[in-house]
Amino acid sequence: LGLHLGEKAAPPMLGQAGHLQQSSKDVLTAFKKTFHFSRTFTTVYDSRIVEQKSDSWLYYEPVKAWSDASPETARHGVNIPFAATMNFIRLLSARTVHPIKVMYRGEREKDTSEHERIFGVKPSFNQDDNCMVFKTKDLEIPILGYNPQLSAMIEKMLQERVRESQDGVRFTMKVREAISSNYQFDFPQLENI
Questions:
Q1: Shortest CA distance to 85 belongs to which of 154, 23, 132, 25?
Q2: Which contiguous run of DSSP H or E holds residue 48?
Q3: Alpha helices, H only, the chain
Q4: pLDDT tens column, 85-131
């Protein structure tokens, strides 16, 4: 199911981060920016991109809380961003690019024919990470909707959103600290917080 959901995914489903993808210079830059701002559109995956020599490694890990609560759905959930990555590349560049490796933490599935159809390679299972590996040069392909002004504007908006989110976390921590340290036996008054 996750493979087919991901196959239908399009950048706008990521909100502003998807629009940032669509206006980026090339696919690699789009993915780097998307991964950087991933917390603006999802809290269920930890994602990162690592460039090693001539390869780019795209990691998609379900958050620990999801993996602990429902390991099977988390394992299948990895298929969504994996397949979405393939579709995003095609939609953004009008080209088909296949990874050189697709690796899953989980056990081998009985039938991997859909994986092979979508990725163009046979996936590996029981690996250390959930990861797709591409030749970096294959991701340095131009994006059809490249618009540097729009890209800069959206990136600035996302940076502001991240900053506001961090400010909110700091405020929440201050409230929590005030309540727990000053009011052990009674509820605090709103004015005191």
A1: 132
A2: strand 45-52
A3: 2-7, 16-23, 27-36, 64-69, 71-77, 79-93, 113-119, 136-139, 148-182
A4: 999 999 999 999 999 999 999 999 899 999 999 999 999 999 999 99
In whole angstroms, what is the distance from residue 47 CA to residue 120 CA? 22
What pLDDT was estimated at residue 190? 58
Catalogue the E-assigned strands of 53-191. Answer: 55-62, 101-103, 131-135
Amino acid making up residue 37: F
Q: How many CB atoms lie within 10 A of CB 173?
A: 10
Dihedral in degrees, nearest 10, Cα atoms 179, 183, 186, 191: -60
Q: Which of 48, 45, 50 is nearest to 77 (CA)?
A: 45
pLDDT band at 20 (very low <50, low <70, confident <90, very high): confident
Indicate the Cα dihedral angle 38, 39, 45, 50, nearest 10°.
40
Q: What angle in degrees, to the nearest 10, is found between the helix axes of 79-93 and 16-23?
A: 40
Amino acid identity, residue 84? A
